[in-house]
Amino acid sequence: MTIEEAFGAVIRRLRRERKLSQEQLSLASFLDRTFISHIEGGKQQPSMVSLFALASALNVLPSDIISEVEIVLNLISSQRLPKGGPGIEKQWIRNLESHMKGAQLEERSETVLVVDDELQVREVICELLRAYGFPVLEAEDGMAAVQLVKEQGENISLVIMDVAMPRKNGLEAYHEIKKLRPGLQIILVSGYHSGIFDSEVTILQKPFSPETLLTQMRLMLGASPPG
């Protein structure tokens, strides 16, 4: 993700949070609507003057916008859980593994694509889903995930994808997959707070519980969790 794209993602999220259209933001900031569209599309980076104008219209400090952009860029370049380190990740994996023992097979027909560059994490999530009866496909990064969707997209009902991955990160893959199959359900997994992402993106923040993952999956696949 480029700096321009990160700025665009942050400005777009802030605007949508305030329920403003691009036209309304244009009027409030005294900036051209096309210019705002280019910023949100990652095609243009705001100047210092336009940054202050946007911040004022969005009722935030310019430094807040810059800080969020830095968080997004750090998120994309990160390859590990940002909070707690490897000890937290190992404990989280153990929790997922232990949950499989009590899994009740549901015989689901929806195929789930699991995308994570960490082999152990990917394998554990796949085994958890198989224990609950979900057919599973695997991909080691965003590039492989996009290719799988191109080849087998009609057979995939849900994608569970880590954000921080090499070659093609989860956010980049998310947008490419949505272009290929707009209706495909996608859950992004991140160690960062979900507030930095667009509101329409479904985020599970690490470390999440197996129950949280399964409940979100059932809701997105159109089935309520068993009572």
Automatic annotation (TrEMBL):
The modification 4-aspartylphosphate is found at residue 162. GO terms for biological process: phosphorelay signal transduction system. Keywords: Phosphoprotein. The keyword Chloroplast does not apply. CDD domains: HTH_XRE. Residues 11-65 form the HTH cro/C1-type domain. PROSITE patterns: HTH_CROC1 (PS50943), RESPONSE_REGULATORY (PS50110). It comes from the Bacteria. Gene3D superfamilies: 3.40.50.2300, lambda repressor-like DNA-binding domains. Pfam families: HTH_3 (PF01381), Response_reg (PF00072). One of its GO terms (molecular function) is DNA binding. The keyword DNA repair does not apply. Residues 111-221 form the Response regulatory domain. This is Response regulator. The lineage of its organism: Bacteria, Pseudomonadati, Thermodesulfobacteriota, Desulfuromonadia, Geobacterales.
